[in-house]
Amino acid sequence: MRSARTANLLVISLLITCVASQSYTNHTVGDSAGWLFNTSTNTTSANYSKWASTQVFNLGDFLNALDTDTFVYSGGNEINVPLTLAVALTSEVTNYFFSDADDGVQCAQGMAFEISVKHGLGLPPSLNQPPPPPYAEPTVPSTVPKDQAEQFYNRGSRDSFNLRLGVFVLGLLMLM
Question: What residue spans carry the Pro residues bias annotation (predicted)?
Fold first, then answer.
């Protein structure tokens, strides 16, 4: 009886472990060291390539980076104030992440890493959006139609003539 109960508990714990391992993950870049660069010593706070090699990245996971020198337009944040950036992993491809700050010095000093995203559970519904339409080159006429150019030229001449006439009349009125 006791061994049956132990076997049941073992099976239940294995099922919980399997279910728990089948979920989406928030990966904190660099773990507790963060995604930071010390400009005084020109060093990163972590070995990001090594960190990435110890992780398994799947569709629907997020990369979370704590950063202090990123500015998000209309984000209300300030430089040198920590900001967490979240990047959803939405394609089964190899992704490259790097810092281009200081004209690439940070990237050259190791603030870069590469990850391969696997299928995992696939994208959750919240991230499973249709792809954007393919890029289409905007149509621009090679030349301005002749009548449009003539209208612009004639209107400009007429407007400048009217302005000169108005200044002349105003001058005459002031002399009187």
Answer: 127-136
User: Within a 10 A sphere around the Cβ of 77, how many other Cβ atoms?
Assistant: 15
What is the tens place of the pLDDT at every residue in 69-97?
555 555 565 666 667 888 999 999 999 99
Neighbours of 46 (CB within 10 A): 19
Residue with tokens 């090699």: 53
Q: How far apart are CA 5 and CA 50, in angstroms?
A: 43
pLDDT, tens only, 13-49: 544 544 445 689 999 999 989 888 888 999 999 999 9
Helix, strand or coil for residue 67? strand
90: exposed, middle or buried (Cβ count in 10 Å: 0-12, 13-18, 19+): middle
